[in-house]
Amino acid sequence: MAITATTFGIDFDFTSAAQRTILQYLQDNNFMLLGYKGASGPNLLTVGVPTWFSVPFGNIFGQVTISYTPRYKVYVFNQATIAAYTTIEMQVLSSEIGLGNALAFNQDGSFGSVGNAPANSINLMNNRPSGTPNITVGLAGLIDLPTGQQYLPFCAFTLAPQGAISMTPIETIAIFAAQVSLVSGNVQGVASAPGSSFSFSNSVPDYELMVQPSTYQITNKPGSPLVNAVTAQQALVPLLSQTSP
C-alpha cells in the first residue's frame, strides 16, 4: 500500500495516576524510550539495526506525541566493519531526498543526482574509485521528539566502491522501555527489553501506547489499534526488514 499520509504519531498519556506511578519508576531507574524503524535492500547489515531514537524517560511527562514524517536524507559513514553496539556516525548527510530518486556519492564527500529509482526506494551509487574501502550508508528519517525535530539514522548498508544499492524504507516500528544507555545510531542486534511493533499505514496513522506495570512492556491502550508483542532478545533485523502481512 502506498503511503500518502504526511505525518504519523506515537502517543503516550502519562496523566493518569497509574501511568504517572509507572513513569516515576522509569525515571528513577534511568529507563530509555527506544525506537527502531524498518528498511530493506541488498547488503543490509545483518548484525543489527541502528537505534533510531533514544529518549530518557526523565525528559517525558504528561501527554507525549512522537511524530514521524516520511522524509529522508542519505548518510555516509567511513567505517566499513560494523559490529553490534557500534555507533553509526552520519559523517556526511545529503539534502532531503524523496523516494523514487537516486544519488551518487563522490570521492570528495559530495552527493550528485543521477536520476530515478523504484517509486518506494532511494538508490545510491558509490562513485569512489575501485580499491578504496567499503563504506556504510543508510537513510535518516525525520522524527519529532520531545527534545526537538531532527533527521536520525534508522538503517545501514555496506556499499563497495563503484557499487550501487536500492534502500527501501518500511513503515514497521519497534519501540521499547529499556534500562540501557543507548544513543541514536547504536547498532542493536536484539531487543533489549519486551516491547511492541506496529506498522503505520494510511488507515492507521497513529498509535496510542501505554507502559505496562511490572514488566514495563509497551503495548497499545485499550480500545486503540493493536500492536504486536516483541520479546526481550528477539532479533531486530528480521522483525524490521519485512513488511507486515
Using brief descriptors, characterize the structure shown.
mainly beta; 8-stranded mixed beta sheet; 18 strands
Structure overview:
This protein has helices at 17-28, 236-240, and strands spanning 8-13, 32-40, 49-50, 53-56, 63-77, 92-93, 101-105, 111-116, 122-126, 135-145, 148-153, 157-159, 164-178, 187-188, 195-199, 206-211, 218-220, 228-230. With 245 residues, it is mainly beta. The chain has one domain. The strands form 3 sheets. Strands 1, 5, 6, 10, 11, 12, 16 and 17 form an 8-stranded mixed sheet that branches. Strands 2, 4, 7, 8, 9, 13, 15 and 18 form an 8-stranded mixed sheet that branches. The termini are close together. The mean pLDDT is 94.
SSE run: EHEEEEEEEEEEEEEEEEEH
What is the helical fraction, as a range of percent? Answer: under 10%
Mean pLDDT: 94
| Terminal CA distance | 11 Å
Low-confidence stretches: none
Largest sheet: 8 strands, mixed
Count of folded domains:
1
Write down how many β-strands occur, each being a DSSP E stretch of 2 or more residues.
18
- Radius of gyration of CA atoms, rounded to a whole number: 18 Å
Question: Which word captures the global form?
Answer: elongated
Q: Give the number of helices.
A: 2
Structural class: mainly beta
- Portion of residues in beta strands equals 35-45%
